[in-house]
Amino acid sequence: MSKTHNNGATALPEWPVAVKQQVLDWLDEAESSEPAYANAATLATCDGSGRVSARVMLVKDIDDHGLVFFTNSLSRKGHNLAVNPQAALSFYWKSLARQLRTEGRIEKITDAESDAYFATRPRGSQLGAWASLQSEPMNHPDALQERLVLMEDRFRDQPVPRPPHWFGYRLRPDYVEFWQEGQYRLHDRDVWRVVEGHWRHEKRFP
Predict the structure, then answer these.
(1) How far from the centroid of its chain's Cα atoms is residue 104's Cα?
(2) Which H or E run includes 104?
(3) Over the chain (206 residues), what is each successive 10-residue block's mean pLDDT?
């Protein structure tokens, strides 16, 4: 019998060590060739009505379970993930003519993991996480700066704790595609996907 999470979803198998290692290798190469933010990826989410939205995020960790990013759970993406915890993260490295596509289920990381990462952020970024009402309308142009001043006063001369609505999400992949540009658009597509609870490898036509 397949293992299930508390919400009834079937547990995904860990991604293969070789797949995780290739992701890390490609990121390492991108760090050497991209001018900035080699860890930037487009995150696509979907709300309860089926409307899709996408934005660029920074992937901050890759572990045995998947890819980790951090954000405000009260944002549009946070609301989407609350009602539909399925998402896709896609990297594109123009300098390498490579694309890395991942799809899967989203889960929260532990509070301890989120606290540990938040503590490494610059103080200005920590204060910004409190000041920004992410995705909400601003009633006047100075609203963000005014809220930032309030937070500076609130946490003056003390460490800035992690906001309860700000934490890490992990995409647990069930689909990973390594895409390499080929001449005459004869691209190489190397795909790993979960089928009936097991990872399978296949090549695909471009």
Answers:
(1) 11
(2) strand 98-108
(3) 45 93 98 95 97 98 97 96 97 97 98 97 97 92 95 97 97 98 97 97 97
The CB density around residue 134, as the number of other CB atoms within 10 Å, is: 17
Whether 185 is catalytic: yes
Return the sign of the alpha-carbon dihedral for residues 131, 47, 67, 181. Answer: negative
Q: What is the dihedral of CA 122, 126, 128, 130, to 10 degrees?
A: 180
Local structure of residue 201 (DSSP, 8 states):
E
Which DSSP string do the residues of 3-56 spell out, in sequence order?
-B-TTSPBPPPPPPHHHHHHHHHHHHHHHHHSSS-TTEEEEEEE-TTS-EEEEE
What are residue 170's DSSP bridge partners? Answer: 68, 107
Burial class, 160, CB count within 10 angstroms (exposed 0-12 / middle 13-18 / buried 19+): buried
Tell the residue number behind the tokens 């309030």, with chain if given: 150
Among the listed residues 185, 193, 200, 204, the single catalytic one is 185
The CA distance from 116 to 131, in Å, is: 20
Q: Which of helix, strand or coil describes residue 149?
A: helix
Decide: 178 and 19 in contact? Cβ < 8 Å: no
- By residue count, the chain amounts to 206
- Give the largest CA-CA distance in the chain: 60
In sequence order, which ranges of 34-110 are alpha helices (DSSP H)? 76-83
